[in-house]
User: Fold Amidohydrolase family protein from Flavobacterium tibetense.
Amino acid sequence: MVFLCNWLNAQQHNKEILFENVSVFDGKNELILTNQHVLISGNKIALISKTALPKNDNMIVIDGKGKTLIPGLIDVHVHMIFGALSMKDMMDPNLKPENLLMKVVPEAKKMLLRGFTSVRDVGGPSFQLKQSIDDGTIQGPRIWPSGAMISQTSGHGDLRLPEERSRRFFGPISKAENFGASFIADGTAEVLTAVRENLRFGASQIKLMAGGGTSSAYDPVDVTQYTLEEMKAAVEAAEDWGTYVTVHAYTPRAVRKAIDAGVKCIEHGQLLDKSTLKLIKRKGIWLSCQNLIDNTPEMSELRKEKRKPVVDGQKMIWPLAKKMKIKLAWGTDFLFEPWLNEEQNSYLLKLKEWFTPYEILKMVTHDNAQLLSLSGNRSPYPGELGVIKQGALADLILIDGNPLEDIDLIAQPNDKFLVILKDGRVEKNLLE
Assistant:
């Protein structure tokens, strides 16, 4: 089966793909170009032309009939492994690291077929999944992996069960650490080791827990985590490898300390004040934000209580960050609630309150791709994403309709996403 999949992928890359008569949203500019012809050669966009292009027998020709071609969608805050598992799954004593992929593989395929051709995994053991996708043995998006989340003891990544005690004092590592979910690292030496371990496995960026969270038992949302020296150590180790640190943080104090340490991206930030947002703007730091909810079916009362101020803060942070022209990125952050994955596209529509259809599409294509590019040479996929231009990577979606006029089309991938390409390969084609 592996050989067959690889052979089929190779055969596809031997064929050019020609989109005829399409309208093109290039990911960056609001103006849609009509009556375009787009040629794909290998895994890149070879040519975009107003005039018809010659055909040959070794070519896949797709008549777009005026439908809209856009870049593949990008979600910059996913947990590929733990987004596919429920808390009940995680607590199953029979769950082993080697059988994690059984539940994850179908979710990865569904994500790709929802049009998400690239994602940034900000915590979890996704290296094996990524390798299987890259090899062509399973379907799924491109993955920028962070590896295990790095957390202090009692931090947001301290996912120990009540009976699990500190390995520093009592010996064995916790179940979550054994699964590769997190590193509990205290002091600069341990932080350096944790960062370097992730880089050794192929992390494209590093995820550090700088403040409290809503999905963990031990840390209130308002607490600040890690000393300045510990965070600086993580940043230096990442920068030595040509990449960056992003931090989980909600509050001004946690974010300001992270900025002082040299981080390049803030995950969440829903409790920030205006002065801290001004600092983010001045430093050119990315704010990777979400639209979290606090009323999912199996969410514990503790988690609902912790999440409420975060959810309330979203109503302020999105419009204010937009007004201040901060570098904004969008992600979902589904964790231990796999039933939410089917709503990935519809979560984009939650931005309609503050953003135009063009602004939403630009954020989830071009802008998110700019954040991915911060990984520099550690990016696992050389090339330009999030745009339709000559020489860019061929991650494309042909949509039945114009999403700049009707953004709700984005939330109808099963019916309205007629063709999906990733890396120049046809992953879905309803026009056949």
